[in-house]
């Protein structure tokens, strides 16, 4: 989910097909309303979701903003010319130089910047007046811990070094002076002039509102499941509706006769059984809604943005899960189509056309022209999220189509089914996937890259002590620049934030597509488990658990349980093997939770995530196109406030959930 353009964050997408809706009536429907709420609680949940959004807006709405008050007047000993206007995720740091005749240089680095060169923060010269320290003011980042190194400017030697986590809009003083121990030592102390604000408080409030919403809906469903309560609601609704109709149409003998006749309201009937798995659509919807939220800004919190290089944030989760669940859908839908008698040749044409449309839509989305004026063909970005999905879908779908086999009936009905049949029957596909992964490993670790060490996996820039500034991404970046050109790949990689990289790098590049294919095939494996062992819940859950643990152990071995010190670190920009195994492990675990709750026990219908999961392409493209339109965005009173951004992003996301729900009820689905 890397940015697609300088003025907006790049978006994700996923794919899915349509589903069913509902109907309407008069008195009989009113009687059935309570029972339908007990099953899905769709309308009630949609209303509560909007209510929660409004409540979030009310609780988090701009008022007296403590964030801005925190940076109010600077200390009295600070000249007005030195006042620094703080932005979001910044604090004010005043460096007091009390060393007579000594000029200081303050260097800064983030604790998340691995093996990075220190960057000059500010120079603080001696005031020239004994007893009066010189003071310099500077803004420092509060997203992560800061490493500060103070050097003697003339002698170029380190005076002191310290690590500190500043708070947002806090006011701090760093006092550099001689210690009072008579040994001539220098002391560096940080003093809090004004306490910071709790910038995470809006997230906590929004989370509590979400929990309250879940509890309210669960309690409503529990009440509606009680026979006494349901009968009371039904009688009350019937009584009110009947009285209304009698009073309004008392003059109509035919209507009065029909109301007073022997006909009883039509009883509610459960929906017909279907082979479609709601847990798959629900999982897709969870990833999609999470994607919409982080793409709209995620409240401007760092953990809702992509990692600068190694490691994981919330934003790094959604795209791999889309790829994974796309693989599951490929197998399930393809098996269904082939069972209906569709020829493989015709299905191949559909696969090719769908892939082509995904790639074309992706190129259009990642190359908007309303920010920078008319777009030049020389600057068109070629890789992107939908392009990656289109390529991945084509390879995995064609692979499954070539080696497609009928699902063994015994696996769907007998306990004696061979425990590894879902794997053994797919040995040609697994062989192909292992060959692809071997190609990725060979290119990544053995392809010579001019000016860079072979097998380099770093971010370049100031990372690795600045030794390889133009080696961002190693072989992955080199292949993209060689085959596509610098101007046709992403110009603002996330590594530029901390590592100050200067070269273009595309996280949706060519080499990473190999591992996205691998991840999609792991999703295919999940689909095979669901279909091969249909109605055998225990066998399905055992296999989901085994795959989750197996892939998790591979991740532990590759990373050595470290963010940066492993053999192959978890890295979204590279789509490293450990990244794929880790996110696939999470995906199997999520299915392990969703399948019994949603499809087996029916404890949860998947609401509200099920609805956007059923219309994923429309929601994805729509949230891209209408990003800058009301009610998805409006002018904020304080643009440097997390709570205002969070409110806006929550409301925008909730609106898309409501849109998806309305379209589902009207049976409107956009399929490619």
UniProtKB/TrEMBL annotation:
<feature type="transmembrane region" description="Helical">
    <location>
        <begin position="609"/>
        <end position="626"/>
    </location>
</feature>
<keyword id="KW-1133">Transmembrane helix</keyword>
<feature type="transmembrane region" description="Helical">
    <location>
        <begin position="646"/>
        <end position="664"/>
    </location>
</feature>
<protein>
    <submittedName>
        <fullName>Heparan-alpha-glucosaminide N-acetyltransferase isoform X1</fullName>
    </submittedName>
</protein>
<feature type="transmembrane region" description="Helical">
    <location>
        <begin position="205"/>
        <end position="224"/>
    </location>
</feature>
<feature type="transmembrane region" description="Helical">
    <location>
        <begin position="429"/>
        <end position="449"/>
    </location>
</feature>
<keyword id="KW-0472">Membrane</keyword>
<feature type="transmembrane region" description="Helical">
    <location>
        <begin position="318"/>
        <end position="339"/>
    </location>
</feature>
<feature type="transmembrane region" description="Helical">
    <location>
        <begin position="540"/>
        <end position="558"/>
    </location>
</feature>
<feature type="transmembrane region" description="Helical">
    <location>
        <begin position="351"/>
        <end position="370"/>
    </location>
</feature>
<dbReference type="GO" id="GO:0005765">
    <property type="term" value="C:lysosomal membrane"/>
</dbReference>
<dbReference type="Pfam" id="PF07786">
    <property type="entry name" value="HGSNAT_cat"/>
</dbReference>
<feature type="transmembrane region" description="Helical">
    <location>
        <begin position="390"/>
        <end position="408"/>
    </location>
</feature>
<feature type="transmembrane region" description="Helical">
    <location>
        <begin position="285"/>
        <end position="303"/>
    </location>
</feature>
<feature type="region of interest" description="Disordered">
    <location>
        <begin position="1"/>
        <end position="37"/>
    </location>
</feature>
<dbReference type="GO" id="GO:0007041">
    <property type="term" value="P:lysosomal transport"/>
</dbReference>
<feature type="domain" description="Heparan-alpha-glucosaminide N-acetyltransferase catalytic">
    <location>
        <begin position="276"/>
        <end position="399"/>
    </location>
</feature>
<dbReference type="InterPro" id="IPR012429">
    <property type="entry name" value="HGSNAT_cat"/>
</dbReference>
<feature type="transmembrane region" description="Helical">
    <location>
        <begin position="578"/>
        <end position="597"/>
    </location>
</feature>
<keyword id="KW-0812">Transmembrane</keyword>
<feature type="transmembrane region" description="Helical">
    <location>
        <begin position="510"/>
        <end position="533"/>
    </location>
</feature>
<feature type="compositionally biased region" description="Basic and acidic residues">
    <location>
        <begin position="8"/>
        <end position="18"/>
    </location>
</feature>
């Amino acid at each position: 989910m890397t940015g697609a353009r300088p003025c907006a964050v790049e978006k994700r997408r996923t794919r899915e097909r349509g589903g069913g809706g509902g109907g309407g009536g008069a008195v009989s429907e009113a009687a059935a309303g309570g029972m339908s709420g007990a099953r899905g609680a769709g309308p009630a949940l949609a209303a509560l979701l909007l209510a929660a959004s409004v409540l979030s807006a009310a609780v988090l709405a701009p008022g007296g903003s403590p964030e801005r008050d925190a940076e109010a007047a600077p200390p009295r000993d600070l000249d007005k010319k030195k006042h620094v206007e703080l932005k979001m995720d910044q604090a004010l740091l005043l460096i007091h130089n009390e060393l007579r005749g000594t000029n200081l240089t303050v260097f800064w680095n983030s604790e998340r910047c691995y093996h990075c060169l220190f960057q000059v923060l500010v120079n603080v010269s001696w005031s020239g007046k004994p007893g009066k320290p010189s003071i310099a003011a500077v803004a420092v980042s509060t997203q992560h811990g800061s490493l500060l190194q103070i050097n003697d400017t003339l002698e170029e030697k380190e005076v002191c070094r310290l690590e500190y986590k500043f708070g947002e809009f806090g006011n701090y003083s760093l006092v550099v002076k001689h210690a009072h121990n008579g040994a001539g030592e220098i002391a560096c102390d940080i003093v809090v002039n004004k306490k910071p604000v709790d910038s995470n408080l809006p997230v906590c409030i929004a989370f509590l509102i979400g929990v309250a919403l879940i509890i309210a809906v669960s309690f409503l469903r529990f009440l509606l499941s009680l026979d006494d309560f349901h009968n009371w609601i039904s009688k009350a609704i019937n009584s009110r509706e009947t009285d209304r109709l009698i009073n309004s149409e008392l003059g109509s003998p035919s209507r009065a006769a029909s109301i007073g006749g022997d006909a009883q309201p039509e009883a509610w009937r459960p929906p017909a059984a279907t082979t479609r798995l709601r847990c798959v659509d629900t999982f897709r919807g969870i990833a999609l809604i999470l994607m919409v939220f982080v793409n709209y800004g995620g409240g401007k919190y760092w953990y809702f943005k992509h990692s600068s290089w190694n490691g994981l944030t919330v934003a790094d989760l959604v795209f791999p899960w889309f790829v994974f669940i796309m693989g599951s859908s490929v197998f399930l839908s393809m098996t269904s189509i082939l069972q209906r008698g569709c020829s493989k040749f015709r299905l191949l044409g559909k696969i090719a056309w769908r892939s082509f449309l995904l790639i074309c839509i992706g190129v259009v989305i990642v190359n908007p022209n309303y920010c920078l004026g008319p777009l030049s063909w020389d600057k068109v970005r070629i890789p992107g999220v939908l392009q990656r999905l289109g390529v991945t879908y084509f390879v995995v779908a064609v692979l499954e189509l070539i080696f497609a086999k009928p699902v063994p009936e015994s696996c769907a009905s007998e306990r004696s089914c061979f425990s590894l049949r879902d794997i053994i029957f797919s040995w040609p596909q697994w062989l192909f996937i292992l060959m692809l992964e071997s190609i990725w490993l060979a290119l990544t670790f053995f392809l010579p890259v001019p000016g860079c060490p072979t097998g380099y996996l770093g971010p370049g820039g100031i990372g690795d002590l600045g030794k390889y500034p133009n080696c961002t991404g190693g072989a992955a970046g080199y292949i993209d620049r060689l085959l596509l050109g610098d101007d046709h790949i992403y110009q603002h990689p996330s590594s530029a934030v901390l590592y100050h990289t200067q070269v273009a790098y595309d996280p949706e590049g060519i080499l990473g597509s190999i591992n996205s294919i691998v991840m999609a095939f792991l999703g295919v494996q999940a689909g095979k488990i669901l279909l091969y062992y249909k109605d055998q819940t225990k066998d399905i859950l055992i296999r989901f658990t085994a795959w989750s643990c197996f892939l998790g152990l591979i991740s532990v071995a590759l990373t050595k349980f470290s963010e940066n010190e492993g053999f192959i670190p978890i890295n979204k920009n590279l789509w490293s093997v450990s990244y794929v195994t880790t996110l696939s492990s999470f995906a199997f675990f999520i299915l392990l939770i969703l399948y019994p709750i949603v499809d087996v026990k029916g404890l949860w219908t998947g609401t509200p995530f099920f609805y956007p999961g059923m219309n994923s392409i429309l929601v994805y493209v729509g949230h891209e196109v209408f990003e800058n339109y009301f009610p998805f965005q409006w002018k904020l009173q304080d643009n440097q406030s997390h709570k205002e951004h969070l409110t806006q992003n929550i409301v925008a996301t909730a609106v898309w959930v409501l849109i998806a729900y309305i379209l589902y009820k009207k049976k409107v689905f956009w399929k490619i």
